[in-house]
Amino acid sequence: MNEYESQPIPHTPPHSREAEQAVLGAVLLSAEVLDDLSGIIEPDYFYYPEHVTIYQTMIGMSGQAIDVVTLSEANNTISLDYLVELADVTPSTSNALRYAEIVGERKKERDLIDAGRLFIDVCNDRSLTHQDRVERSQVAFTALSSERQASTQVGMKTSAAAVLESLDARL
To answer: Which of 11, 38, 111, 123 has the least CB density, counted as fewest CB within 10 Å?
Structure first.
């Protein structure tokens, strides 16, 4: 393998388990926090699948009482013991927005890595012309830039799949 061939990145993608836990724990301690998080983070911003499930369930319970018992009852796949742990490890509900920002920042970093991988794959695709490679690469990074601008207004809702769909739609 030469220096130009795509190589796997040998580390875990960016994430913050502590920030994810603190966001979820803050909602468990004060359900009103969920309203504050609307437009800032989405379920797919979470790295851990169990956190995605918990946050999706919380969103589905919006406007209702949310605590360890009601959440566990709303989705029996969620461990009551883990919910208790989330509530216990949460330092403060007053910092929930900052915790959510950290979760969002890590999601953007993962999206950038995914776009970089896509860029490398497109550049290595010998079935494409040079111009096609350039255009597809530009689309991938333009999508990230557009999504970053949109995130300041309504929250970023991207993933590698969205970037790929955008590529297919534009080309």
So the answer is: 11
Token code pair at residue 35: 């309203």
Task: Give pLDDT, residue 36.
Answer: 94
| Residues in CB range of 79: below 8 A, 6 or more apart | 72
What distance in Å separates the CA atoms of residue 94 and residue 46, rounded to the nearest whole number?
Answer: 20
| Digit-coded pLDDT (tens) for 32-43 | 999 999 889 999
- Could you tell me if 48 and 20 are in contact, meaning their C-beta atoms sit under 8 angstroms apart? yes
Which burial class, exposed, middle or buried, applies to 152 when counting CB atoms under 10 A from its CB (0-12, 13-18, 19+)? exposed
* CB-neighbour burial class of residue 49 (10 A; exposed 0-12, middle 13-18, buried 19+): exposed
Say if residue 169's pLDDT is above 80: no
